[in-house]
Amino acid sequence: xxxxxxxVTVCFNSQDTIRMTIESVLSQKYDDFEYIIVDGxxxxxxxxxxxxxxxxxxxxxISEADNGLYxxxxxxxxxxxxxxxxxxxxxxxxxxxxxxxxxxDRLSGDITYGNVVRIREDGxxxxxxxxxxxxxxxxxxxxxxxxxxAMFIKRETMLLYGYDTRYRITADFNMLCRMxxxxxxxxxxxxxIARMDNIEGISSDKKNIPVMWKEDDDSIKKCxxxxxxxLRPLKYIKRKLL
Length: 242
Fold this sequence. Notes:
The chain is an alpha/beta fold. The protein has helices at 18-26, 46-51, 69-79, 99-103, 133-141, 155-161, 171-181, 209-223, 225-241; strands at 5-11, 33-39, 59-63, 84-87, 93-94, 111-120, 123-127, 151-154, 186-197. Strands 1, 2, 3, 4, 5, 6, 7, 8 and 9 form a nine-stranded mixed β-sheet that branches. Strand 2, helix 2 (46-51) and strand 3 (59-63) form a beta-alpha-beta unit. The chain starts with a strand and ends with a helix.
């Protein structure tokens, strides 16, 4: 049975990328979805571009100051009406126009997720994190995670956990750690969901790497304390060699 999907785009001063994301979302060949755009009170041409789509009935838009990316994503969650949420932020696009129609009948558990095509300076590659809850735990312990662009999260689960905005860069990693710790049900579908820019963005900015490592370590320490202590020396050595 198909389910209603809430697609969310968070943006701020995104005049160069917001149109491609909106066009990608609106190109979806699926009837039962809503589109929530949360703008952080942009001062460039972002709002003007969004306004060009104001006559589309599936779009709901908020524009007001917020406390960053994850605060805006939480705000969208609080008003979403779909059974599952997908976060496709400015600059991200769906892999093709059939993603929602293909995935809708396969949504189950707390999270259904697929693959992401990452676009990098040296080309592009398809990233797959298939596996069970336990295998996802091992991925997290290595400081990696399923991309949030590839996840469809059950609304009730999202409302229960939410993004902890104390984590400025890796609140998505922290939330997934908490879900895996609590053995929430993950459902993998071998299907490309999104294409994402891995060149721009706060997590791909090299100057943010020390903060990202610190936040990741804190999440692992809180959710998997024994494994944190066991793996800490290996992580220290690895990072020193980078």
